[in-house]
């Protein structure tokens, strides 16, 4: 399993053709206290860059994009009752959704952890 | 006036010291605590004395209500005191400068109120015979004429009730025009510098929304926009002046490019105050724009009254405007509605409201326009822009102004939280500003600026009022930059200390619940959550 990052501050753990998607620790810090998360339903088909989920904090509401094309297999139901998981464990328990990738090659253009760290440091 | 306090002595302002005794009531002299109306009302009390209802046989077949309605009863004196006490805990434009950016919180002239309360305007009903309300219909028509003239457009839909409602009206006109051409264009482009309601409106109308990035100067990236234009684009929604408080100088080029691919241009007119009397959006190629009468034309906001968002339309969109509207035949006015629309507006997309619009706002707005005249309205825009630039230049040495280098701003000045001490935020500064006696500015918007503070003073404020506000801003900005821990505890002097906004959003209590009496103990429980 390998972890990739996008310029939209999302992470995805890729295992074969399945991926788990969430927002990075940097993203949750920027948003502040998360108060609401809307995750996609299983079976939803998304193209890379489509709106896939919504995250709302005390400061702002933002779309979470599909980092790659594919089909959503599961939304994180725990976030409905406890959106604070995104603040406390953004890159673990606070995952947003799991998906089956239709084009696993798309991840090759994404950043690894070191490259993402450099990217954030440059912001 | 010698002899009357010639020494200039003033009694010392009250201070709330750390060791000040608490009072038995919770009141602090003129700062009065006030429970909810449900907590003080009683179903045994009433403010009116009705004669007993005559006995009658219910015709509801057993469906009549038997339980109490639960409406709190108070005497007139108790009611007046309740709301007066609550109003004293509020901040209002009648109390002081209200710097909320993009909201144009200007003074509501009392002349407007006087006109709106004239019985011929205040005591009429929308279903009255039209020959008994000719004056009111004339007001709608005359205001419509002013709005068309000031914007250089072809027609105006008067019925939308607020800004976002007006946006929806404009987008529905665009949709109807595209339907009439037999075209299915699924995408609406919205620049980052547009108002947040714009993408919501487009999505609500069924369009896919795509962002257009801003340039480092805070304007629409024209090259990025042009690159995205094509036959799938229904419209571009632009806010001008934009939410960075900047004029979009490429507006005409943007409109031309959008029209060249068959799309329409929606302009969010929320910031019209900065250009009224100076710029006609019709000359910039705009096809539809809402006008917030409660911003530019001084009618009250929010709790002070309803909004009103008439939408001016270009020649291309005018045939699709919603019903009803007022038509003048010689010396008389008549309402054009579904029954008689045939010859006047056969392609209207339908109706957005039950009646003709916010009559009380129409009278106020027309009073404002006529009392200012064309020269006065031009000066409104000039003074609003001058005041905003005075604020911008008076604060840019203590607060980071991300677009301060790109020339003058329009009606609002934008700052970021760059330079604040570690751990100090825009929210902290805003809470400190409350203690200084001001309603905070718009915060964390626009999103393109970190920790944004958007300040719109409007033309209402004098230089003296601006100087006081600037001094207060410099003080709290200094605290935020120095990392003054006292700021973290603010507000100290508001009716309530800092509220837990996160808890309120995560676990909102949306309705009052009667406290349950725990059996045997007689203790009250707090109203439940959820």
From TrEMBL, chain A:
State any GO BP term from the record.
glycine decarboxylation via glycine cleavage system
User: Which UniProt key words apply to this protein?
Assistant: Lipoyl
Q: Cofactor stoichiometry and binding?
A: Binds 1 lipoyl cofactor covalently.
rRNA-binding in keyword set: no
Q: Where is the Lipoyl-binding domain?
A: 18-100
Coiled-coil ranges per UniProt: none
GO CC, alphabetical: cytosol; glycine cleavage complex
According to its UniProt entry, what is the function of this protein? Answer: The glycine cleavage system catalyzes the degradation of glycine. The H protein shuttles the methylamine group of glycine from the P protein to the T protein.
Q: What is this protein called?
A: Glycine cleavage system H protein
Q: Which organism is it from?
A: Flavisphingopyxis soli
Taxonomically, what lineage is the organism?
Answer: Bacteria, Pseudomonadati, Pseudomonadota, Alphaproteobacteria, Sphingomonadales
Automatic annotation (TrEMBL), chain B:
Q: Which domain of life is it from?
A: Bacteria
GO biological process assignments = glycine decarboxylation via glycine cleavage system
What keywords is this UniProt entry annotated with?
A: Oxidoreductase, Pyridoxal phosphate
Domain named Glycine dehydrogenase C-terminal: residues: 382-481
Reaction(s) this enzyme catalyzes, per UniProt? N(6)-[(R)-lipoyl]-L-lysyl-[glycine-cleavage complex H protein] + glycine + H(+) = N(6)-[(R)-S(8)-aminomethyldihydrolipoyl]-L-lysyl-[glycine-cleavage complex H protein] + CO2
**What EC number(s) are associated with this protein in UniProt?**
1.4.4.2
Give the enzyme's main class according to its UniProt record, as a single word. oxidoreductase
What molecular functions are annotated in GO for this chain? glycine binding; glycine dehydrogenase (decarboxylating) activity; pyridoxal phosphate binding
Its cellular-component GO annotations read: cytosol; glycine cleavage complex
Q: Which InterPro entries match?
A: GDC-P_C, GDC_P, PyrdxlP-dep_Trfase, PyrdxlP-dep_Trfase_major, PyrdxlP-dep_Trfase_small
Q: Where is this region: Disordered?
A: 1-26
Q: What does this protein do?
A: The glycine cleavage system catalyzes the degradation of glycine. The P protein binds the alpha-amino group of glycine through its pyridoxal phosphate cofactor; CO(2) is released and the remaining methylamine moiety is then transferred to the lipoamide cofactor of the H protein.
Its name, as the record gives it, is glycine dehydrogenase (aminomethyl-transferring)
């Amino acid at each position: 399993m390998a972890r990739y990052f996008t310029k939209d501050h999302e992470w995805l753990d890729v295992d074969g053709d399945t991926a788990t998607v969430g927002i990075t620790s940097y993203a949750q810090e920027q948003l502040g206290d998360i108060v609401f998360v809307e995750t996609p339903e299983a079976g939803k088909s998304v193209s890379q860059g489509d709106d896939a989920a919504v995250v709302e904090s005390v400061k702002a509401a933002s779309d979470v994009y599909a980092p790659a094309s594919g089909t959503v297999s599961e939304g994180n139901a725990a976030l409905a009752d406890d959106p604070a998981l995104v603040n406390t464990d953004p890159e673990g328990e606070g995952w947003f959704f799991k998906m089956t990738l239709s084009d696993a090659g798309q991840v090759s253009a994404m950043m690894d952890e070191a490259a993402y760290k450099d990217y954030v440091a440059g912001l | 006036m010698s002899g009357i306090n010639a020494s200039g002595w003033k009694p010392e302002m009250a201070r709330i010291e750390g060791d000040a005794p608490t009072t038995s009531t919770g009141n602090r002299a003129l700062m009065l605590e006030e429970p909810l109306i449900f907590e003080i009302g009683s179903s045994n009390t009433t403010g009116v004395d009705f004669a007993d209802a005559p006995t009658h046989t219910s015709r509801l077949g057993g469906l009549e209500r038997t339980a109490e309605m639960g409406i709190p009863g108070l005497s007139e004196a108790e009611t007046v005191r309740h709301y007066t006490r609550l109003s004293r805990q509020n901040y209002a434009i009648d109390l002081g400068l209200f710097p909320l950016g993009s909201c144009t919180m200007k003074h509501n002239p009392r002349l407007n109120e006087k006109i709106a309360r004239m019985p011929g305007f205040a005591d009429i009903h929308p279903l009255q015979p039209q020959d008994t309300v000719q004056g009111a219909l004339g007001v709608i028509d005359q205001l419509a004429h002013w709005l068309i003239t000031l914007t250089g457009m072809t027609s105006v839909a008067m019925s939308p009730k607020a800004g976002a409602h007006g946006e929806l009206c404009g987008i529905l006109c665009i949709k109807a025009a595209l339907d009439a051409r037999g075209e299915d264009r699924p995408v609406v482009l919205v620049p980052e510098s547009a108002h947040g309601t714009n993408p919501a409106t487009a999505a609500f109308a069924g369009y896919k929304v795509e962002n257009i990035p801003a340039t480092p100067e805070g304007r629409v990236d024209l090259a990025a926009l042009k690159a995205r234009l094509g036959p799938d684009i229904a419209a571009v929604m632009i806010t001008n002046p934009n939410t960075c408080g900047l004029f979009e100088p490429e507006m005409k080029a943007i409109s031309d490019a959008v029209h060249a691919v068959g799309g329409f241009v929606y302009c969010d007119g929320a910031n019209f105050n900065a250009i009224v009397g100076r710029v006609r959006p019709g000359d910039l190629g705009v096809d539809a724009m809402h006008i917030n009468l409660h911003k530019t034309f001084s009618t009250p906001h929010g709790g002070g009254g309803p909004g009103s968002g008439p939408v001016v339309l270009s020649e291309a969109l005018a045939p699709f405007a919603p019903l009803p509207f007022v038509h003048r035949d010689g010396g008389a006015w008549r309402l054009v509605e579904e029954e008689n629309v045939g010859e006047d507006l056969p392609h209207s997309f339908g109706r957005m409201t039950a009646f003709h619009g916010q009559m009380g706002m129409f009278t106020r707005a027309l009073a404002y326009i006529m009392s200012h005249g064309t020269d006065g309205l031009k000066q409104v825009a000039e003074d609003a822009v001058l005041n905003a630039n005075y604020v911008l230049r008076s604060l840019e040495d203590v607060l980071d102004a991300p677009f301060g280098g790109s020339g003058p701003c329009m009606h609002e000045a934008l700052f970021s939280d760059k330079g604040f001490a570690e751990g100090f935020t825009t929210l902290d500064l805003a809470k400190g500003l409350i203690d200084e006696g001001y309603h905070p500015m718009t915060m964390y918007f626009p999103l393109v600026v970190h920790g944004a503070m958007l300040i719109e003073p409007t033309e209402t404020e004098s230089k003296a009022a601006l100087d006081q506000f600037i001094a207060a801003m410099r003080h709290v900005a200094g605290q935020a930059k120095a990392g003054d821990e006292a700021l973290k505890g603010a507000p100290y002097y508001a009716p309530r200390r800092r509220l837990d906004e996160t808890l309120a959003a995560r676990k909102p209590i949306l309705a009052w619940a009667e406290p349950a009496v725990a059996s045997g103990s007689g203790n009250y429980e707090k109203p439940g959550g959820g």
